[in-house]
Amino acid sequence: MLPTPSQTVGPFFSFGLAWMVPQEPVDTGFVVEGVVVDKNADPVGDALVEALWVANGQAAFARSLCEPTGRYHLRITASGNEVASPILVSVFARGLLQRLVTAMYLTDIGDELLCSLDPLRRQTLIAKPTPTGYAFDVILSGESETVFLAW
Amino acid sequence: MNRYQIGGVNYQIDPAYDTPEYRSSAQRAPTQPLVVAPSRLVEVSFPVFEESKVLPRDADLCHQFPQEPIGERIRVTGRLLGSDGRPLVGQLIEIWQANAAGRYRHAVDDHPAPLDPNFSGAGRVLTGPDGGFQFLTIKPGAYPWRNHPNAWRPAHIHFSIFGRLFTERLVTQMFFPNDPLLEYDPIFNAVRERRARERLIARFDWDTTEEGYALGYRFDIVMGGHLGSPLVAS
Ligand SMILES: [Fe+2]
C-alpha cells in the first residue's frame, strides 16, 4: 500500500504536543541542549526536537519544544556510559515538509557512519560535554549544515 | 527523499525539503544531500507507550469543557496500517487543529477570528486491536497565512504518529474532500505524486455519520519506512 506522505508540523503545534514534555525537573541522567538555527543562523523558535536512544538495551524517548531563542532541552534518563551511540534526533518545524533526522554521538566512536563523512561535516554529529551533560546545535541549512540522514 | 516502489514503479511519496512554492522552506531546507545511514543505526524501536497516559476522553474534542465548541461536529474514523496492510495496534496518534473559525489556540496565531473558549483543538488516541481509531471533533475552518498574496490553508487536522520503528515516525495533515483551496495549497501540493496526495484527503462516510449528531469522515493512515519495506533513499 502506498504510504501516507509527510506534511509540515506547521507553527502551531505546541498546544497539541507539549503534554509529553516532562513538567517537573527530572534528576536522573543528563541534559542535552542546544539551539536549532536556519540558513541565516537565525534561531528556529518553532521547532520540535525529539530524541530516541537505547540504554541498557531499553529504548527511551524525549521531546522538546524550542523556545523562541531556538533553544531545546532534552533529559536523557540514563548515564552517558549507559547510552548507546548515537542518539537519534528528529527535528520538525514550519518550513520542513518532512522531519530532518540526525545522529548525535556523545563521543567520536569512529563507526561506519562517522568514518564515511569528511572531517568537518563529521564534527556536526559530535556533542560537546557541558557541566550538566552535552551541547548539540542543529544547523538546518547552509555552509556548516548538520549532517542529516536518510535510509 | 523517500520513494516507494510498487511493481517496479517508483512513487515519490514525501515532499521535497526544498519546495520554492512553500516560502519558509528556503531558509530551513538542507542544502547538502542526505547521508544514507546504515540501517541498524536507524531501525530502532520506539519504547512501548504507557497506555495509562491516554484516556478515552482525550479523543473527544467536543467535551473537554463544560460547554460544547461551536462548529460542525464530525467523527474522524480510521485505521493505522503498515505498508503491508497489517493493522498497527496500540499506537499513539496525536492531533491538533484550528477551531471552526480557523483560529488556533496558540499565542503566535494572530488571525483575527475568535477563539472558542470551549475548544482546545488538541486530542490523542491509541489505536485498537484492528488498528482503528476515532476522534469526535468539529470541522476546522480555513485560515489565512503569509506564504503568498491572499494565501489560505484548506481546512486540515494535523496528525502525529510514532510507528513501531524510528523510521516510521510520521507527522502529516488530514484534508477534507472537495475543498476548493486544495488546488492552491503549496503544502498539500508539495506531494508531487497524485496517488500519494490522495492519501491525505479524508473521505465522507455515511457509515460513521450519526443521524442527528455528527458527520463521518474516514481517514486511513499507512506508515512507510519500516524494516524491509522497499523504500530507497536518493
Ligand atoms: Fe495548520
From TrEMBL, chain B:
Coiled-coil region list: none
This protein's record includes keyword Hydrolase: no
Domain of life where this protein originates: Bacteria
Keywords (A to Z) from UniProt: Dioxygenase, Oxidoreductase
Keyword Protein transport tagged: no
PROSITE patterns reported in the protein's UniProt record: INTRADIOL_DIOXYGENAS
GO molecular-function terms, A-Z: protocatechuate 3,4-dioxygenase activity
E.C. no: 1.13.11.3
Domain Intradiol ring-cleavage dioxygenases: start-end pairs: 76-104
InterPro entries assigned: Intradiol_dOase_C, Intradiol_dOase_core, Intradiol_RC_Dioxygenase, PCDO_beta_N, Protocat_dOase_b
Family from the record: Belongs to the intradiol ring-cleavage dioxygenase family.
Name assigned to this protein: Protocatechuate 3,4-dioxygenase subunit beta
Native source organism of the sequence: Ferrimicrobium acidiphilum
Lineage: Bacteria, Bacillati, Actinomycetota, Acidimicrobiia, Acidimicrobiales
